[in-house]
Design a protein that fits this description.
Largest sheet: 14 strands, parallel
Radius of gyration: 26 Å
Strand order of the largest sheet: 1-2-5-8-11-14-17-20-23-26-29-32-35-38
């Protein structure tokens, strides 16, 4: 009780001593740098409309920086604009433009280093190398920002939101385009990426590396060179996302490489070259997803094992499943396949004969990609019909033992 009274007294003291500092033309303080210098913990800086070219400003105090009428911080293509290091800091309602470029340094519009409880909300970032770069920080929120990069080549563009060695992060409701990777995570744990729209970036919409116990949900990833990549990570939850029109020779909705114990559920894969590409991944649950009009719905390499594909819907894909091996160590059950031609004599909505989703032609294409030009030819139809009558070349145990006659209700 005594300690609670002390805490309450400290809060009241801080609130009573907090100041509001107005910065802008015709204000007492005309420079943001000066405003930050005179601010104390608990103060609020109101930055009024106008353009500020003040180089890199460092915030290490527990303050609120609030833009009024969307002021502009201009890096003049040579500077970072804001470096944050500390705790309990909010930056909101500011337009950042023209962050500098360097092949040696990761210049960004906003850089957060060694920080706790920072919030970056409702800002606009334009024409930046890296837009928001976060390192060695925790309990930080990046929310409802509009981020647009300079859209140069992969080697000359940074990432929209870049997280390195972070914990308990929330990335929510951001719009990101024109960067190398929309969102990049490396050594990031216990974090959530949700309700973002990431599109027209050069490489990945979202890129995980060595990041465990994270979740990304209800995001839209559209029009990339390669889609979303999750690599060398464990216990990642991928729920309710939309992957659309990721076309190209090496494009995927999701690339899963060396992933363990994750969940891919309630996602939509529409018009991608490959919906899901899996390599060296195990103990994943791929459940209640929709695959529509993809080149390949799923490519499962022979290095994958103990993965479960249940209650998914496959509609209008050129190939539903492909594999580069003759033996499958994964399980398929209760999926709906629009190519299934079986029957249901007992009327339980489950096919009476198993379905083999890997066609002979799909196996041939995996070994000889140039044969793709024969797709939908009469000869290919004969090959697949012959394989169904006398199976022998396709993986015998890659089979759905209980195919659904009607699409699963997802």
């Amino acid at each position: 009780m005594k300690s609670l009274i002390i805490i309450l007294c400290l809060i009241i003291t801080l609130q009573s001593s907090a100041n509001t500092i107005k910065v802008g033309k015709n204000k007492t303080v005309s420079s943001l740098r000066q405003g930050v210098q005179i601010a104390k913990d608990g103060d609020t800086i109101l930055l009024y409309g106008g353009t500020y070219k003040e180089g890199n400003i460092v915030i290490s105090k527990s303050i609120v920086l609030l833009g009024i009428h969307f002021p502009v911080l201009d890096g003049e293509m040579k500077n970072e604009m804001l470096t944050i290091s500390g705790r309990n800091i909010l930056v909101k309602g500011i337009h950042f433009i023209n962050a500098g470029f360097s092949s040696m340094n990761d210049y960004s519009a906003i850089k957060i280093i060694d920080a706790i409880n920072v919030a970056i909300e409702n800002n606009t970032i334009s024409n930046s190398y890296f837009s928001i770069h976060v390192a060695n920080s925790a309990h930080t929120t990046i929310k409802n920002n509009s981020i647009s990069g300079n859209n140069k080549s992969e080697h000359l563009s940074g990432n929209g939101i870049h997280l390195w060695k972070c914990d308990n992060m929330l990335i929510e409701g951001n719009f990101i385009q024109g960067h190398r990777d929309g969102i990049y995570l490396e050594f990031v744990s216990n974090s959530v990426i949700k309700k973002n729209r990431s599109e027209k970036n050069i490489r990945y919409g979202l890129h995980f590396m060595f990041s465990n116990d994270d979740a990304y949900q209800n995001n839209i990833f559209r029009s990339y060179g390669a889609g979303v990549a999750v690599m060398f990570s464990k216990r990642v939850k991928m729920v309710g996302n939309h992957f659309e029109e990721n076309w190209g020779a090496s494009s995927y909705g999701i690339l899963l490489k060396e992933i363990k114990e994750g969940n891919v559920t309630h996602n939509t894969f529409l018009k991608n070259t490959v919906g899901i590409f899996m390599e060296g991944s195990s103990r994943l649950t791929i459940d209640q997803n929709t695959f529509t009009s993809n080149g390949w719905a799923i490519k499962v390499q022979a290095s994958c094992d103990d993965n479960n594909f249940n209650h998914n819907n496959f509609n209008g894909n050129s190939f539903d499943v492909a594999s580069n091996g003759s033996v499958s160590l994964n399980k398929f059950n209760n999926n709906y396949w629009d190519k299934y031609e079986g029957y249901d004599l007992n009327k339980d909505s489950i096919g009476d004969i198993p379905y083999h989703p890997v066609s002979l032609y799909a196996m041939i294409v995996e070994q000889n990609p140039t044969t793709l030009m024969l797709m939908r030819s009469f000869m290919v139809s004969l090959l697949d019909r012959a394989e169904k009558a006398i199976p022998g070349l396709t993986p015998e145990n890659l089979v759905d033992g209980q195919p659904r006659l009607k699409p699963n209700k997802l």
